Amino acid sequence: MVCFVVPRVMRMGKGREMLIDAASGQRRPTIPQAPEFDSAACEWSVVHVEQHRIGALEIAPSSPVNHVFAIHLEGITELEVADDGPFRVHRILPGQVSFFPAGSVFASRTIDAGRFYTVSLTPQFVLNHALSPDTGTHPAFLPQRGISDSFIKALCDRIRDEVNADHPKGRIYVEMLGQALAAHLARHYTSSAPAPALTHGALTAHQLRRALEFIREHLGEDLPLASISKASGLSPFHFARRFRQSTGLAPHQFLIHQRVERARHLLIHSPATLAEIAHQCGFCDQSHLTNHFRRIVGVTPRRYRDRVEA
């Protein structure tokens, strides 16, 4: 077993990377102990960073809340992982990357000491930047264990560096790096194929692009299905079925996620009250915002704003 000296704690935040327990459905931190540092104090709503030093660790079957990249820093780790099957041993070397897609179920265990950090992207952010209206593809991401991908590592290193920089509020820069990660995932680590033709149930690239643009342009308004479908030139019935086939989400689910993402941005960058944010994002009232925000993000809007301002 390799031993390491724990460095000075550089930054400690309140937010944690979370898993959903497959048996109970309850959320819990991915790593039980507190991280050496994280990005919770940064004004980033869609990207999160944590660094850990761990010894023996066992994770019961769980699903990541976000898409998580784990970059191994020190030690040679024998990691046993079960991805919807028996445990397999992976020898993880410094500099290698593992990827845990949001919603995928896995279990893992190790007895080796090591240090690693994680960079995670919210599912909606990845959907926005990995879904290609030009090709009509909807990526299904594949788990990766101990791969050597210098592009992913370089992007994650830059994001991690921002946590400890003198300007940790560079949200636009970090989100641009996140967009590059999402695009790289969609190109190299998916099982997606071109979307089926319209006669097989999917929207055309043009119809999908029109629908997404219409939703984003009118996010704060009342958006009945008929209005969105009209932008794509389809009846509400056919549009709803084809939108789900193209994106994996029903139109109302996609709309709610987009509104929550806008609310997250406003909670960080706007002094507006919760009631005003709810109105600007198209929710009926503050209670409506709170219910959906807590379901998707895991905390109430007020708690989320308090964490950012702390």
Could you explain how this protein is built, in words?
- This protein is an alpha+beta fold and 310 residues long.
- It has two domains: 18-188, Sandwich (Jelly Rolls); 198-309, Homeodomain-like (Arc Repressor Mutant, subunit A, Orthogonal Bundle), CATH 1.10.10.
- The chain has ten helices and twelve strands.
- Strands 2-1-5-10-7-8 form a six-stranded antiparallel β-sheet, with no helix packed on it. Strands 3-4-11-6-9-12 form a six-stranded antiparallel β-sheet.
- Helix 5 packs across helix 6 (236-247).
- The chain starts with 17 loop residues before the first strand and ends with a helix.
- Mean pLDDT is 81; it is low at 1-14, 133-137 and 193-199.
Write the layout of secondary structure elements.
Layout: E1 18-21, E2 27-29, E3 37-38, E4 47-54, E5 57-64, E6 67-74, E7 77-82, E8 88-92, E9 97-100, E10 106-110, E11 114-121, H1 123-130, E12 144-147, H2 150-163, H3 171-188, H4 205-217, H5 225-232, H6 236-247, H7 251-269, H8 274-280, H9 286-297, H10 301-309
Antiparallel strand pairs: 1-2, 1-5, 3-4, 4-11, 5-10, 6-9, 6-11, 7-8, 7-10, 9-12
